[in-house]
From TrEMBL:
Signal peptide: 1-30
Gene Ontology CC annotation, any one: periplasmic space
The organism of origin for this protein: Piscinibacter terrae
Transmembrane segments: none
Molecular function as annotated in GO: copper ion binding; oxidoreductase activity
Keywords for the protein's UniProt record, in alphabetical order: Metal-binding, Oxidoreductase, Signal
Lineage: superkingdom: Bacteria
Protein name per its UniProtKB record: Copper oxidase
């Protein structure tokens, strides 16, 4: 028990933990490892192991690693399935189900060859189980209700025990009333470190993990709609949405690994700016070197895990996000017609006489929405938001920033603030004369000769120059 606490305190997160006040039988609980709870959605520093084999621990974005106690050579963990309140972004809280105070649950980190015993206490109003996604284990430990075990009824504690046989990137989630329980946020990450130098697993300076998840929560509501199959409106990493997702802070030159698992109902092409990466591992373990090639986007399909690696050698604030553009937005009404190019001002003036708060959306594109001070219900994430050093970032959902800094101390995960660009290295407004374009070779310098014969005679091209009144269509 003391080991358990000490481990946790060494992880640097001591101030924000509480022990579970349990409604489950106190006698039964007394023999179990103390369930450790996390009360904040902040990114906790890595949990450095002080028993068992050493490894370089991972950092869970807006999450934490579960401490264990060593019991006669067995690593013992205690997960408590329970309702939680998760702050998904500042000003927006969701009523979810999770483990040990948060959704997702804590990351479990072990070493290849470890014997692991996990107590699972059910404090949900319905039965549950845990499936250890991707693990080699005895069939009876696989966590499929009805197939390999009886369900864990409310108030009961079950124990799972197996050897973490292969190193890699895994996750855990219920295999009982799955649609409900996953839509409510029950899931967690699992990393098994190699027990010795592994030819296909490099040592890295930073190792980040997070789950891709999604919710359907009406603006102003707190609880996800559990019957939603595809039309989710909140696309999150570890049940956080931008600007609530912490940045991935690294030192320039660091070798960085990012591990992701997808427990949403659709795929996510994950895109990193400024660097190329290799996909070094999947759900099946490390990939053979001959199969690795450089990419800047990798798709993570439903139920898959991907681990990517790169050298962070370019200083700056580099966007890292899902490339489906509606996955970098937060909840909004879907029935919004495209209003680009439609001039509403006169109409709105008339409507406002009748309905003072009426507002037309997206007359010039959607970017305006990120700055609009629209009356929105309480407990609603803004559709797009997040202030950057140059104004609104106009993003939501599955978006964060990899911050690469020359002077970020080794092993320090603190947010260094916004990048200060060297003078003269930002894109800037052009205020000089615009060079006139040359249209034809004979008129000076078009490299592609244009056939005189096919040259259209009577077509007048209207070119709208940028500048004042560019949003107006003056015909
Ligand atoms: Cu996506």
């Amino acid at each position: 028990m003391t080991t358990n606490r000490r481990n946790f305190l060494l992880g640097g997160a001591g101030a924000s933990v509480a022990l579970a006040a349990t409604s489950v039988s106190k006698v039964a609980m007394a023999a179990l490892p103390e369930p450790v709870l996390q009360t904040t959605p902040n990114t906790m520093p890595p949990l450095v192991p002080n028993t068992g084999r050493q490894y370089n621990p991972v950092v869970t974005l807006n999450g934490w690693t579960l401490p264990w106690r060593m019991n006669n050579g067995v690593k013992e963990f205690h997960l408590v399935a329970e309702p939680v309140v998760r702050e998904m972004a500042p000003g927006f809280k969701a009523h979810l189900w999770g483990y040990n105070g948060q959704s997702p649950g804590p990351t479990i980190e072990v070493v290849e060859g470890d014997r692991v015993r996990i107590f699972v206490t059910n404090k949900l109003p319905e039965r549950t189980s845990i499936h250890w996604h991707g693990q080699r284990l005895p069939n009876g430990m696989d966590g499929v209700v009805g197939l390999t075990q009886t369900p864990i009824e409310p108030g009961k504690t079950y124990v799972y025990e197996f050897v973490a046989r292969r190193p890699g990137t895994f996750m855990y989630h219920p295999h009982a009333d799955e649609m409900t329980q996953m839509a409510m946020g029950m899931m967690g990450f699992w990393v098994t470190h190699p027990k010795a130098k592994h030819p296909l697993i490099d040592e890295v300076d930073r190792d980040f993990v997070f789950l891709l998840n999604a919710y359907d929560i009406e603006p102003g509501a707190y609880t996800p709609k559990i019957m939603t199959m595809l039309d989710f409106n909140l696309w999150s990493w570890n049940s956080r949405i931008f600007p609530g997702i912490d940045s991935l802070n690294v030192r320039q030159g660091d070798k960085v690994r990012i591990r992701m698992g997808n427990l949403t109902m659709t795929n996510h092409p994950m895109h990193l700016h400024g660097h190329e990466f290799l996909v070094t591992g999947t759900d099946g373990g490390p990939t053979p070197k001959s199969s690795r090639w450089h990419e800047v986007t990798t798709d993570v399909a439903v139920g898959q895990m991907r681990q990517l690696e790169f050298i962070a050698d370019e200083e700056g604030d580099w966007a890292f996000h899902c490339h489906k553009s509606h996955h970098t937005m937060n909840a909004m009404g879907h029935e919004v017609p495209t209003m680009i190019g439609v001039e509403h001002r006169g109409v709105v003036r008339e409507i406002n006489k009748l309905i003072p708060d009426y507002m037309v959306m997206a007359e010039r594109g959607m970017a305006d929405m990120s700055e609009m001070e629209m009356p929105i219900p309480d407990n609603t994430a803004r559709m797009m938001g997040g202030e950057g050093p140059f104004g609104s970032v106009e993003m939501g959902g599955m978006f964060s920033v990899v911050k690469v800094r020359r002077n970020q101390p080794r092993g320090d995960y603190k947010d260094p603030g916004w990048y200060k660009h060297p003078t003269g290295t930002n894109a800037f407004e052009w205020t000089g004369a615009m060079p006139e374009p040359s249209r034809f070779a004979s008129e000076g310098g078009q490299s592609m000769p244009v056939s005189r014969r096919n040259r259209p005679k009577d077509i007048e091209v209207q070119i709208r120059k940028p500048g004042a009144g560019s949003a107006q269509h003056n015909h």
